[in-house]
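Pipeline run #58 for the internal structure catalog. This entry was flagged by the ingest filter as a single-chain record with no existing model, so it goes straight to prediction. Upstream metadata was stripped on purpose; only the residue string is passed forward. Reviewer on rotation: M.T. Logging verbosity set to normal.
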Amino acid sequence: MPASGRVLEDSIRLSRIRRIKLTLYIVQAVMLIALGFLLIFVVGGATLKPRLYVPLDSFLAVLVLLLLIICLESFFFRMLEIKFARSSSARHLMAKNSIKRSVLIAIVAGIAAMVLAVPSIVNAVESSVQQRLVVGPGDGPTMFYSSDIMNLAKTSEVHVTATKQVEVYLLEDEVFSAYWAPDSTDSMNQMISYRLNRDNYVVPENQVLAIKIPDAGFVLYHLVLNDMANPNTSIRVDVVKELSGTFTGTVSLLMIAFIVTNIAWVAYLIPIERKYGASSIYK
């Protein structure tokens, strides 16, 4: 085949490869939107009213997985583009740009994996989102949610301390709203009956009472103070939060996969970049 004919054929193939790549990316973007709707609204139970709740932990894991698949696909398409490029300079430029992009992706993925996987960093992030409250007898019950509105940080425990022995009751908002009345003995009896912390409700003097929070989706909880045994006793409440296991575990593993695949891709491209770099007009 004449050289001009081969160049024309390679140009047609290159155009087809790029059209197929674009089409595939569009299809995957549509799939991502559909999966996002399914995971956030159907599986995750997202709500707009009465409280905004948009769980993103599972969606972010799927998003990163799909980006990893697209990254691997881009390697395959780049190999074809290099193969059917019309000149050594074009092949060299493609390989060089791909190396730069992969190095950048590996660095970003490495930073993200470090933030999500290193215990000391995770503990520092969790400590920054914890709450500490001092509640007195006239302040009313303490309120907190089981997670943030994106479900990235979940409330795992509540630690309560007091200078004198008191009792505290953990209740869901629906029960609390139905039976709570200030300064009512009957209301307090209902709080005792419907409390979620059936066993650990007594706060010993100057000791920490740890109450585990049920994993029941996005729930508003109330912590009711009963100071009848020692009136006018205040309590300190520490709301302990943990980052979502889906977010820290799955996403950190996928970030490590990004690092490995991009480093392998760079190792594959370096000989190609050097091979065509000698005769390339691009330096």
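catalog note: The chain has two domains: 3-120+245-277, 131-243.
catalog note: The domain at 131-243 is CATH 2.60.120 (Jelly Rolls).
status: ready for reviewer M.T.
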